[in-house]
Write a structure and sequence with these properties.
The protein is 42% helix and 17% strand. The chain has 224 residues and is of the alpha+beta class.
Length: 224
C-alpha cells in the first residue's frame, strides 16, 4: 500500500489500535497492544519507541502508552476512513455485520482524503458506523459518548446496547448470532462469581458473555 503524508500502513495500524484501546482503558499497556495486533511485546515496544521519536505517542514506563495530539489526529483520520468503509460495505453491499470490521481494515489504508470525503458524501455523512461507534469529522472531532461498558452494570439493571468496540470477527459473529446488536434491550440477570460471566436476557432469550467482551459492549440505561 502507498504511504500517505509519510505515514505507512504499520504506523496507521498501531495508532488506530492504541486509540481503540484507549477508549477502554485510558493508558494502553504494551502487552494489550501486542495482543490486539497479534505480535510479540518486544516488537510492539520497538515500534512504540519509533512512534515516540516521531512524537505520535507518549510512553510511560511500567504503565503504558497514550497518543499525543498529533497521534490522536492521525488515529482519528484512520478511524474515519475505516468506519465510513464499514457503512459502505453494510449499506451499499449488504455484507454481514460481523465481517464489516475486518473487511474495512483491509480498505482503510488504500485511500486518501479525497476518496474518503467522496465516500462520506455518497453515504450522506453518517455519524456512527454499523457497530454504533462514532465517525470522527474531517477535523477529527466527534461527540463524546455518554454510554458505559456493560461490565459496569449490576444484576437487575436494564439497558440498551449502543455500540460495540473493536473485537475479533469470532466475537462479532457470536454477538450477531445472539442478537446483541446496537439498539437491543438487555437485562443483566446475574454475574457468575467464579469467572465473571454475565448472564443476559434479551427478547430472544438468555445469552452469556465474558468479562472481556462485557467491557467492549457499551450500553446506556435509558430507553430503547
Amino acid at each position: 500500500m502507498a504511504e500517505k503524508a509519510g505515514v505507512g500502513e504499520s504506523t496507521e495500524m498501531y495508532l488506530k489500535s492504541i486509540d481503540e484501546l484507549m477508549d477502554e482503558t485510558g493508558v494502553v499497556p504494551i502487552s494489550a497492544l501486542a495482543d490486539r495486533l497479534g505480535i510479540t511485546a518486544v516488537s510492539a515496544s520497538e515500534m512504540i519507541r519509533r512512534l515516540q521519536e516521531q512524537r505520535l505517542v507518549d510512553h510511560r514506563p511500567y504503565k503504558g502508552v497514550t497518543l499525543t495530539d498529533s497521534g490522536r489526529r492521525l488515529a482519528s483520520s484512520i478511524l474515519r476512513r475505516q468506519r465510513l468503509w464499514e457503512c459502505f460495505l453494510s449499506d451499499q453491499l449488504g455484507l454481514p455485520w460481523d465481517r464489516l470490521y475486518d473487511l474495512a481494515c483491509q480498505l482503510e489504508h488504500a485511500v486518501g482524503p479525497e476518496v474518503t470525503e467522496a465516500l462520506a458524501d455518497l453515504l450522506g455523512h453518517p455519524t456512527t458506523c454499523p457497530h454504533g461507534n462514532p465517525i470522527p469529522s474531517p477535523e477529527g472531532k466527534w461527540e463524546p459518548a455518554l454510554d458505559r461498558p456493560l461490565s459496569q452494570l449490576a444484576p437487575g439493571d436494564q439497558a440498551t446496547i449502543r455500540r460495540v468496540a473493536a473485537v475479533s470477527s469470532a466475537s462479532l459473529h457470536y454477538l450477531a448470532e445472539h442478537g446483541l446488536l446496537p439498539g437491543t434491550r438487555i437485562t443483566l440477570e446475574a454475574i457468575e462469581p467464579t469467572d465473571d460471566l454475565r448472564r443476559l436476557r434479551t427478547a430472544r432469550g438468555e445469552v452469556v458473555v465474558g468479562n472481556q467482551m462485557a467491557r467492549r459492549i457499551h450500553v446506556d440505561l435509558g430507553g430503547s
